[in-house]
Amino acid sequence: MTGERTITVNPEDVKKEILAKYPPKVARKRGKQITPVSSDEKEGLQVGANVRTVPGIITQRGCCYAGCKGVIMGPTRDIINLTHGPIGCGFYSWLTRRNQTRPPSDDADNYMTYCFSTDMQDENIVFGGEKKLKAAIQEAYDIFKPKAISIFSTCPVGLIGDDVHAVAREMKAKLGINIFGFSCEGYKGVSQSAGHHIANNTIFTHVVGLDDTVMDAKYKINLLGEYNIGGDGFIIEELLNKCGINLVSTFSGNSTIDQFANCHTADLNAVMCHRSINYVADMLEIKYGIPWIKVSFLGPTSTANSLRKIAAYFEDQELIDKVEAVIAEEMVPVEAKIKEVKPRCEGKTAMMFVGGSRAHHYQELFRAIGMEVLSAGYEFAHRDDYEGRHVIPDIKIDADSRNIEELEIEPDETRYNPRKTEEQMKILEEKGYPFKEYEGMIPDMVEGSLIIDDISQHETETLIEMYKPDIFCAGIKEKYAVQKHGIPMKQLHSYDTGGPYAVFKGFVNFCDEIDRMLNANIWQYLKAPWQKDPELSGKYAAE
To answer: Model's pTM, two decimal places?
Structure first.
């Protein structure tokens, strides 16, 4: 979407106002991460991303541990996720993202409601915590008898040198179950993105490929980068099943270790959150021959296009016809809802600073009801999330990224099985089929809008004061600061309320939620009368 410029605030003026508060050196650094969008220069825009936050600036970011344990592994219900560290780390990452799961029966394994931690104390920091870690693994096994236990390193573990991998190997041999560790100390990398990468590498190394059972289904796919926040994954799978498409595994919403072990038997990988999971998609293609495509199930148009893209890959007219019939049926309530809420929402504005690909994909939902996105950005993106995958060869790997292990993956000697021949792939690509393609967020930003990477509290308040948006979307940490400005704040990072918002059904829910928030009268009462009109005057009664 190119978009006609309807934004009256000059983004260059906003950028200058933001940077004026910083010391010169900080301003130069932050200036690279604040990018006004001009329609004439979109192809040449470069957004500074995946660089360390300046110390002292309060931003939205989480740590490497949060990305590994909280984001990637947190939604997996039958692995005991054991935090090796102080209790605060384990508690912080425990169910904070509203990941939902649905075990097949009441007696099936589900450990998501538990918070497992070694609860390291001062003496463990001084004398080492490996003994306590072994005891915690033994206790968890004795109580629950799980299929697998994963161990997450926190900052003090990395600083004192506890070897979680050696402990994992020892206890795996002793107990006879799959036990593996993550070197995901919070200080690694520049944000939670490093934790995504570490988690993906470890799951690929220790779990993927352990089960060669092939599902009895005609159209088998993996859904990568969907974390079932607020139940999104449930309705996505429901829609896919309605079309006759079966999920082998989801990384990692409503997931199980068995799904991870079996994911290499699928015929196509569909990637939702590009940032958190593109590593797995690439590795599955190299080792097992499974191609991948970028999809989005946020918004009715993107959902329809993604279903069509999946159907086109299988080149089966029966599936193509079924998908079209499902889309036609699902669009009826969508069009009715747009007709209902658009008159009340049209012309209003939004801002979005949400991780993953959400700050990009949710723009479609706002546009569908006549709203415009003034500014957007991510807290843990890389340049390709903004500019598209074509810039990956040009991205310079800095010291912060080099300490994240890159796996050397080769085709599996016995199980490498290209799902399509080179000729078939070439024919599809010549027809415009986009394998391994993601154009990033920039093409969907309207002229005059502003992209800000790793936004800070000061920058958030400046944006609100200058643009005066009608709604602001971000994470839980920003909620109250935004609301104090008299602006509704929609938590889109983990849906503190509401949802699901994916596919057609979720879009209807989203419309109702945004309509309610924009048109609630409560916001006019946030300022006291003396704040609106501070000049108080009076006179004596005798006058």
So the answer is: 0.94
